[in-house]
Specification:
Blueprint: H1 13-41, H2 44-51, H3 56-63, H4 67-79, E1 84-86, E2 91-93, H5 96-102, H6 113-122, H7 125-134, H8 146-167, H9 174-180, E3 183-187, H10 193-201, E4 206-211, H11 214-227, E5 233-237, E6 250-254, H12 263-274, E7 279-285, H13 297-315, H14 329-338, E8 343-350, E9 353-359
Parallel strand pairs: 3-4, 3-6, 4-5, 6-7
Antiparallel strand pairs: 1-2, 7-9, 8-9
Amino acid sequence: MTTIATTARPVDPDRLQAFLGRMVGDVGATLSAGLVLLGDRLGLYRALADAGPVTAAELADLTGTSIHYLKPWLANQAAGGYVDYDPHDQSWSLQPEQAAALADSESPAFFAASMQLAVATLADVDAIEERFRTGEGFGWHEHNSGLFDGTERFFRPGYVGNLVSAWLPALDGVLPKLAAGARVIDVGCGHGASTILMAQAFPASTFLGVDYHPHSIQVARRRASQAGVADRVTFETQDAAELGSGTADLVTMFDCLHDMGDPLAAARAMHRLVGDTGTLMVVEPMAGDRVEDNLNPIGRVFYGASTLICTPASLDQPGRRALGAQAGPTVLQGILREAGFGRVRLAATTPVNLVIEARH
């Protein structure tokens, strides 16, 4: 018979209640993730933002949805602080800050898509449970398809808010090249959000996005056509470590180096690709170098993603380095230096990003 060892210290009822309170909050947040996804898909947040205070019946009419579902949905959202409720006239509304995060997909603060990513990831928990036992990987391509769209929508607001205005200007001498006409390669481009944003900002330059995932490349090509930049942007299915040499003025890697089975081999390929005069920009999740530096809400999110997405992806590839989403600046810059880059520096940060510049 299996027994569970107990510590000498007795259970403190107050500490237990506080801990259970946190768990109750987590259960509510987990269930609410699906409700945020519904609010996003059904246009409920957008309608609340546009209409101002409305009753549940009015919101049902505006959105063509059932009031029987809307009533508990609205109450859940108000309980979580996502929606405001006025008991005097029984109306529901969004504050401007809530609308920026939930209703405006072009806002740099848009966060509703994070729930699409989370819900899709949780659909693969059974598969990850098995990988815990076997140590095998679970490739990006094997995930629930909602993860691909959710990832694009989750990261795009950060790119909109920072890529052209802050990250590229932080690189040494890159903006003049882009304005004059540079060749840019976006590695791990996914659905092409970062590639297309750069192409729109720098019409004299040409862009190549590469990703190992064929479905993402197909979506990226459609996105480029819809954005009107397909004449200057191409997308190809290709492994990062197999790219050529000496052909790029700028190579970018957004939130993908830590997912790779052999990030050193990929970094060496980037070293060849930029030649003597090009620049590599690596954007990675914000992290400190020690576990204790990352025991905070942002670290919790990224360690969760690392367990369910990033580490399994790396373990599915040759090399199986399994850096995870919290590798930290010292490890990341060390990989780039080992790959041959002589000048490596932290060029910029946000609350959720590290931006590293590497040159020969």
